[in-house]
């Protein structure tokens, strides 16, 4: 398969996709490494994961170059994300040392019981192209810390940093503990059917549904995208529009949690459209953010924009050639518009009007996805009340995309099932075993 630099359209390298032989070999290597890795004490796993974090930081420029070549994102974005990945391996290495059983004691007369949390075994981690290294960190760090071995299947267009991570993991963790398996969708299908003990997938709802169907009784952890509503009240902070424009165009809008649907009350609607368009006009494709990742995504983005019935379109300056798309605002559009209902995954914001806060919440909840949302108001009482009414797994007040390893990130409805980040993510990769002993 030819790997394309999305910034230029040029072929940057060629790789053969993994097929049955490569998939079997990767899973076999993970199976062979699992007993030794899971038998290590949490302290020793922590030490080795910290050594992997050190290697990531020591080779930061190589990771950044590989990530930029695969995704097209600016160097500053790639550098910030690889720092987060190094932090994740350190965080989970330490977190697993503090794990405690949920129950232990005399629950039956004459018996003592306790619960052990054990690794599930071999994890197949299938990650997307929008954050190749960061999503690998989100999936691999807790899985490895919990004592599992991992076969990492990167997206077809962005295997570069996964291969680099696997090479450093062999050095820091040992052979077979983390294996990278580059390939296409057929490679992923083979991996899902290879007998791994858990499938951890981040990607589109359609692909997630297929994986869940193919997995059968194999446990799955799914993060399947978002379509984040943004409720902006008339007393929102002065920098709201600049904050939203920056968040929307980060990674060219190719983020599951990116702000997508701005909802404003009637009396502030016209001013809001003008202010948002002005803020987006300051975000230039080619200067402030990169291109879309691949031709399929560009075609999908173009289809959604072309099908929109928006009466107001505001397009910012910037590159429009190849895979580059400008920051765009669509306003005066119906609630069932494709740009509202579908996850656009690009540097685009829609604006909808609501007659009341109740209607604003109804509009926010009207799409299948429920991953993230934000509320913007200086009235914290009203703002906090609105965060309670939104069903997304992560809700921000007067900010967006503010995340930390300590805080869980999870989807509801069609956005998936399972938890990334925080110590709760460790439970995705463990299973409980109750041990009860009769006292004789």
TrEMBL record:
Domain Aldehyde dehydrogenase residues, every copy: 2-435
List of catalytic residues: 223
Keyword match Oxidoreductase: yes
Keyword Ribonucleoprotein attributed: no
Keywords: Oxidoreductase
Top-level lineage group: Bacteria
Family: Belongs to the aldehyde dehydrogenase family.
Protein name: Aldehyde dehydrogenase
């Amino acid at each position: 398969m030819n790997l394309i630099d999305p910034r230029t359209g040029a072929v940057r390298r060629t790789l053969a996709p993994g097929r049955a032989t490569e998939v079997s070999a990767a899973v076999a290597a993970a199976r062979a490494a699992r007993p030794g890795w899971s038998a290590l004490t949490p302290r020793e796993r922590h030490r080795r994961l910290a050594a992997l974090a050190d290697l990531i930081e020591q080779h930061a420029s190589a990771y950044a170059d590989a990530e930029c070549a695969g995704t097209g994102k600016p160097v500053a974005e790639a550098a910030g994300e690889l720092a987060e990945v190094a932090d994740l391996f350190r965080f989970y290495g330490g977190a697993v040392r503090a794990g405690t059983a949920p129950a232990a004691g005399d629950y039956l007369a004459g018996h003592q019981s306790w619960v052990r949390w054990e690794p599930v075994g071999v994890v197949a981690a299938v990650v997307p192209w929008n954050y190749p290294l960061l999503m690998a960190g989100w999936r691999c760090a807790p899985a490895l810390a919990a004592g599992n071995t991992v076969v990492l299947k990167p997206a077809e267009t962005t295997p570069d940093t996964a291969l680099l991570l696997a090479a450093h993991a062999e050095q820091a963790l040992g052979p077979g503990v983390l294996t990278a398996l580059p390939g296409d969708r057929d490679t992923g299908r083979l991996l899902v059917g290879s007998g791994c003990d858990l499938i951890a997938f981040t990607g589109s709802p359609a692909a997630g549904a297929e994986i869940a169907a193919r997995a059968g009784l194999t446990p799955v952890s799914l993060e399947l995208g978002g379509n984040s509503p943004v409720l902006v009240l008339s007393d929102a902070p002065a920098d709201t529009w600049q904050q939203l424009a920056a968040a929307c165009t980060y990674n060219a809008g190719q983020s599951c949690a990116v702000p997508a649907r701005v909802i404003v009350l009637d009396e502030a609607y016209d001013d809001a459209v003008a202010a948002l368009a002005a803020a987006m006009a300051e975000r230039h494709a080619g200067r402030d953010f990169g291109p879309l990742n691949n031709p399929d995504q560009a075609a999908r983005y173009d289809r959604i924009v072309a099908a929109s019935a928006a009466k107001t379109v505001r397009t910012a300056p910037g590159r429009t050639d190849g895979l580059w798309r400008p920051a765009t605002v669509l306003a005066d559009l119906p609630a069932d518009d494709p740009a509202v209902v579908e996850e656009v995954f690009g540097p685009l914001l829609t604006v909808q009007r609501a007659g009341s806060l109740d209607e604003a919440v109804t509009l926010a909840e009207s799409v299948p996805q429920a991953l993230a949302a934000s509320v913007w108001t200086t009235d914290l009482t009203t703002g906090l009340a609105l965060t309670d009414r939104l069903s997304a797994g992560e809700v921000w007040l007067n900010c967006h995309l503010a995340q930390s390893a300590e805080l869980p990130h999870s989807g509801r409805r069609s956005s998936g099932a399972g938890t990334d980040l925080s110590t709760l993510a460790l439970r995705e990769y463990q299973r409980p075993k109750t041990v009860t002993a009769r006292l004789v």
